[in-house]
Amino acid sequence: MKRLTAYVLLLALLLTGCGGSVDPDEAQESIQVIAMDTAMLITTYGERSPAAAYACEDTIRDLEAKLSRTDPDSEVSRLNAAGGAVLEVGEDLGVLLDAAAYYQFTTGGAFNIAIAPLASAWGFTEDHFRVPSQEEISGLLKLVNGFSLQQTPEGVALGPGQSIDLGAIAKGYAADKIVQVLQEYEVPRANINLGGNVLAYGTRPGGAPWRVGIQDPKRTDEPNAFAGVLELEDSFAVTSGGYQRYFEENGKRYHHILDPATGYPADSGLASVTVVADCGEGSGLSGMMCDALSTALFIMGEETALDFRRNWSGLPFELVLITEDGRVVATGGLADRFTLDESSGYTYEEAAS
Amino acid sequence: MKRPLPKLRPTAWDGLVVLCVAALAVALAAFQWQGGSSQGLTAVVSIDGAEADRFALQDLLKSPRTYTASGYTLEVAAALRGDASPLDHVKSNGELGLQVAHSDCPTQDCVRIGAITRSGQSIVCLPARFILRLEGGTPDPDSVDAVLG
User: Fold this and answer.
1) Distance (Å) from the C-alpha of residue B62 to the closest C-alpha of chain A?
2) Roughly how many angstroms between the first and final C-alpha of chain A, as a whole number?
């Protein structure tokens, strides 16, 4: 009987004790953040997941305080208000300005942070939507396309009347900085969604890739309507689409992705552009690249976007293009990582390499 | 010289204690392995970055909940998938979910999105800085972890 008692007590210890222990790989923290004019979800795993998640939030808040165009105390606002005077800028803004100049050059001006005055004229920055007159647009285009950043040892300066908006690149940079935070906190896996900028870090618990749905641009009123699903690990993915923000006037829809060549919402035949790149060792600032290129390639259109990818082989990224005529075009590197949602009605094509 | 220890003979009380401990152990293990008392979906409401409410999905069947955020008022109510809004063109399949039934925010995106029914889905009202998210439930390996766009 004593032996039986010992066995039962051991069983009791095992049943209660083991159930209470925490697998460090499964430990999870999930926090929601509204910042950079979007809703974000940060999910981290591992023993230090709570501290890591809140450190990610701190990183985002810190960048927002420096880069917001609507916060009058931010570095960007002070630069915009400097009236052409030289202003000393911090490291983050310096990196972003350099990157913006690079992507403006490589995309032939499709990516342009000096679009700010036009975005304000259309009301996309302040949520007071209106269609500007052609005369107003023409005047603002001179500021946008005459953009040049003066860089001196003392700091940087914008041209007279010019202003910048980093909305098409800042979340990608935040994602790059979050990778550093996750590494610092030895997070084994994380799923970070910065309002459509997704960082699929590591894999799902169990080792399968993260499953990331691409919103169907035709069914934006449905929360679970996808054109297809990407299976990703250690990757960034960013989507730009005209359906994300728009207004309608006199029966016509005007979206927020403005073409610096015309001053009007881009009309390239694309409904959305998704850019995917690795976030592993040696991938540099890939989050920023995905963010900037998703906007620029949306403006360029299908053929020019695919040509751009072929011509700039030093920029390692993959694409999923959803066209307004009902096709989903993916580049070869995603062939075994993308699954079309058959119910979406799109036809699938693999882009010629 | 040490005296020999008296020989202990188990009694009926010993057996009863053993049975009680075993029953308690099994009950505790079952509680922990099943994730406590919550087996279904849990709704989490965040306002301006802070968790404002957390409740079981079934709790909303009794009455809707109203939240005030950034000067806007939102009413969260239970809904069946597909029946949530005139713009939700999905056929109802009986799935119970949550919707923002009314909001006085300027964009109305939170109302237009219709009902959410699965873990991981959320409704966001940016003007109100309001997020409604479903958590928990049985993990579905085919569900998506994040949405682009």
Assistant:
1) 25
2) 75
> B27 pLDDT exceeds 60?
no
Phi and psi torsions of A322, nearest 5°: -110, 120
Chain A touched by B8 (CB under 8 Å):
yes
Between chain A and chain B, the number of residue pairs with CB atoms below 8 A apart is 129
Q: From residue B102, how far is each of B49, B92, B105, B115, B128 by CA, in Å?
A: 21, 20, 9, 12, 13
pLDDT band at B30 (very low <50, low <70, confident <90, very high): very low
pLDDT of amino acid B7: 61
Distances (CA, A) of A39 to A1, A78, A214: 62, 25, 17
A-proximal residues of B, 62-121, CB under 8 Å: 85, 87-90, 106, 112-116, 118, 121
Nearest to A1 among B14, B88, B142 (CB): B14
Does any CB of chain A come closer than 8 Å to the CB of residue B147? yes
pTM value is 0.81
Interface predicted TM-score (ipTM): 0.87
| Interchain contact, A11 vs B33, CB within 8 Å | no
Residue B39: which pLDDT band, with cuts at 50, 70 and 90?
very low
- Write down the residue that tokens 């940016």 correspond to: B126
Letter for the amino acid at A68?
A: S
| pLDDT less than 50: residues of chain A | 13, 16-20
